[in-house]
Amino acid sequence: MTYRPPDPAAFIARVAADPRCAAITAGASVDAALTSRTPVVVILRGNGLSLVPLVRRVHAAGKLVAVHIDLVSGLRQDRSGVAWLAGAGVDAVMSSHGQLMASIRAEGMTAIHRLLLVRRSQLDSAAQAISRAAPSMVEVLPGVLLPSIVDRLPPFKVPVLAGGFIRTEGDVRAAMDAGALGVTTSAIELWGAGGD
Amino acid sequence: MATEWATRLPRVLLASDGRHAVHVPPELEGGVLIRDSDLPALVHCAASGNRPEAVDIDSIAGLGSDDAAVDFVISRLGFRIILTRRPALAVRAAEHGRLGLIHIFGYDSTGMARSLEGHPRVDRVGSVLSPGLVITHLRADELAQLPRPLLAYGLIDDVADAEACLALADAIAVRPVLAVRLAAAPRRD
């Protein structure tokens, strides 16, 4: 049977209910993520061509999978690369390339556009590019700076994740106070102990 | 042969597109960084009396990203600090006896570690941390990994942030308007 990812609204609802997403490099920290409370496992590294076993493990643990297509190896950042991830059962795809967002949506996955904070002079053009790409979510990096720059960002019409150097409870609270729906973090201690 | 002058990194670089005169406040140990410009403006700016010291070579429209471009901006235009994403170009600047600074992208810990993998770690090749403000959130071991001299560049928008970044980096890049405010701020040393 072909796997169908949740629609973006359902994906976002999962994050809203439990806002700490586990950022992992494939092979590392997987067990900790699977036994944590995290609703979404974000794969930042590894071989994009051999993700199926990991995706199945994550789904078996009742969690969703997001893959950063710009960072995993073996895949090109194009429509075919996105289709490959859809075939692997991935629920969401993250990228800094706005032109991929339509392909991600067309495959039924949640499209997450990464906004890389570089310089003030580039914020407006980056925000406009995101607006044109129409992702389902935006991930702001480094998320630890979101509280410092939120008043300089135009309002996004989609939920925001804060990722990058989120390492303490204080960082999580500050990001969410600044308007983030959730965070992505590789700090295992922030993922929360699993229930049950 | 490298001289101390040729490789000295001013504490405060005023970022400019080179199309308008930028004056470094005399209270600052400063210089001018040209970025987000184009080749004619770069040449014009270099020929002016207000000669800039540094150029972000990858952000100059019309200028190549190769050895010939580095040779040109150093030997013909007189720049002595080259910012680039490409390690080979920073090494080329160092071979000229000048200072090369390689962009290290500090968006997250994983990406920063990957960015550092390509750093040649040789003399006269330092780092540009982008965005610079993130330096205030790095652990000591992460900061120690960044090859010096270290320029913090990006999202430094007020005096308090500038001073916090200066306490950790060798230099910062800021907009001219902030440099004026920084020069007018009470000295804390």
Question: How would you concisely characterize the structure shown here?
Answer:
The complex is a heterodimer of chains A (196) and B (189). With 196 residues, chain A is an alpha/beta fold.
Describe the structure.
The complex is a heterodimer of chains A (196) and B (189). With 196 residues, chain A is of the alpha/beta class. Chain A has one domain: TIM Barrel (Alpha-Beta Barrel). Chain A contains 8 helices and 8 strands, in the order H-E-H-E-H-E-H-E-H-E-H-E-H-E-H-E. In chain A, strands 1-2-3-4-5-6-7-8 form an 8-stranded parallel barrel, surrounded by 4 helices. Chain A is globular, with a radius of gyration of 15 Å. Chain B has a single domain, classed as TIM Barrel (Alpha-Beta Barrel). Chain B has helices at 4-7, 39-47, 67-76, 87-95, 109-117, 140-145, 159-166, 176-184; strands at residues 12-16, 30-34, 37-38, 54-56, 60-61, 81-84, 99-105, 125-130, 150-153, 171-174. In chain B, the strands form 2 sheets. In chain B, strands 1-2-4-6-7-8-9-10 form an 8-stranded parallel barrel, surrounded by 5 helices. A two-stranded parallel ribbon of chain B has the order 3-5. In chain B, strand 9 (150-153), helix 7 (159-166) and strand 10 form a beta-alpha-beta unit. In chain B, helix 3 (67-76) packs parallel to helix 4. Chain B is globular. Chain B starts with a helix and ends in a 5-residue tail after the last helix. The relative contact order of chain B is 0.16. The A-B interface holds A 23, 25, 44-45, 71, 116-121, 141-142, 144-145, 148-149, 152, 163-165, 186 and B 36, 105-111, 130-131, 133-134, 137-138, 153-155, 157, 161, 175.
